[in-house]
Each structure stands twice: as C-alpha cells, then as structure tokens.
Amino acid sequence: MKVLVIGLGGVTNGGKTTLAEKLKKMLPNCDIISQDDFFKPESEVETDEHGFKLYDELDALYMDEMVKSIHNWMKSPASSGVVTEETQNTCDNLKNRDDVYILIVEGFLLYNYEPLNELWNRRYFLTLPYEECKRRRSTRVYQPADTPGYFDGHVWPMYLKYKNELEENSSNIVYLDGTKSQEELLSCVYSDIIQELKKVKE
C-alpha cells in the first residue's frame, strides 16, 4: 500500500480549506488533516507587548501532535476512516496493493517545521496580496475574535516572516495565486496530483 502526502499551505484566508475539501471529493482514498485542529487553548497562547495573542506562530500549535497524527495515518491509512464508501464496499480494493492513499495536510504554517518537511510528496503554497488578504480576513469571525490592529500588528508580519524563511530555505514548492478562481486553482492542483499519483504507482 502506498501513500501520498500533499501539503497545502499559505496565507490566512487564501482558500486552503476550500481547496482541500474540493480535492478530497475528486481524489480516490483521500483524507484531510487540518492544522487548525492543533491550536493550543487560548490560555496557553502567549501575548506580546501590544496585547496581541500570538496565534500565528509555531508555538501556538501542538506541532508534535500534528506530526504524530500524520505518522499514524501513514501507518494505516485504510483503517483511518478515510476510505470512500465505494471502496469500503469492495473488499477487492482493500486487497489491491496498488491502491494509493492520499493525505492532504492544510494549514498556514506547514513548511517551517523541520519534522514535517520529511513527509511531503508535493507542497503548495497559496499567496494573496496584502489588501485582498485583509479584506477577506475582515469578513471572517474567529474565536477569539481579532482585536483592532491585530491583522497589521501580528497576522501579516508573521506571514511575511515565515514566507521569507521558506523562500530562503526550501525548494520544490508550487506557489499558487489565491486571487485566481477556485475552479482554476482546483484544476491546476488536481492535474498536478494526478501526475504525482501516476509516478507513485509506477
């Protein structure tokens, strides 16, 4: 049994979750792990001198738990509840050694944590210009809510910091323009993953 681990990272409100969910519907034996599920409780997230909760940093997340979850999935993807219903109904499919199981990991800080970087087969990174990102962010309701000045004081500077780190230290990342239509992004990433699937099956 083979596995394909796809990273879908990038800017806040760039469309990562939407794209991941659409890909899941189109790809066989596909599951999603979302980085947002690994945030520490608010009481454990540090506050800076401006009173901003530092959510956009690695320290705000249980990253070791996230890595463990991905490893657990990789060990037995067929039993992770991932398998599509059609596949569950056909025992032959489960016996098929050529089956490839796909995991999409989506989140805003995927490629700046070394233990994760050993796992990716493909890595995508969604970008947005400042104005568009700020506009989208202002339409979303967060728990806890963004405080006044939070986007400019914490969210955007952290995005730029981690993106610069990434550009200096990493290669083989496909950058995607988050202002493109969802259909265009889906088509681009889907065809790329299908090519990767073919390689894995060979």
From TrEMBL:
Pfam families: AAA_18
One annotated GO biological process: pyridine nucleotide biosynthetic process
Catalysed reactions, semicolon-separated: beta-D-ribosylnicotinate + ATP = nicotinate beta-D-ribonucleotide + ADP + H(+); beta-nicotinamide D-riboside + ATP = beta-nicotinamide D-ribonucleotide + ADP + H(+)
GO cellular component: cytosol
CDD domains tied to this protein: NRK1 (cd02024)
Highest rank taxon of the organism: Eukaryota
Pathway: Cofactor biosynthesis; NAD(+) biosynthesis
Record-linked InterPro entries: P-loop_NTPase (IPR027417)
Keywords per UniProt: ATP-binding, Kinase, Magnesium, Metal-binding, Nucleotide-binding, Pyridine nucleotide biosynthesis, Transferase
Gene Ontology terms for molecular function: ATP binding; metal ion binding; nicotinate riboside kinase activity; ribosylnicotinamide kinase activity
SUPFAM superfamilies: P-loop containing nucleoside triphosphate hydrolases
Family: Belongs to the uridine kinase family. NRK subfamily.
Protein name stated in the entry: NRK1 kinase
High-level lineage: Eukaryota, Metazoa, Chordata, Craniata, Vertebrata
Gene: Nmrk1
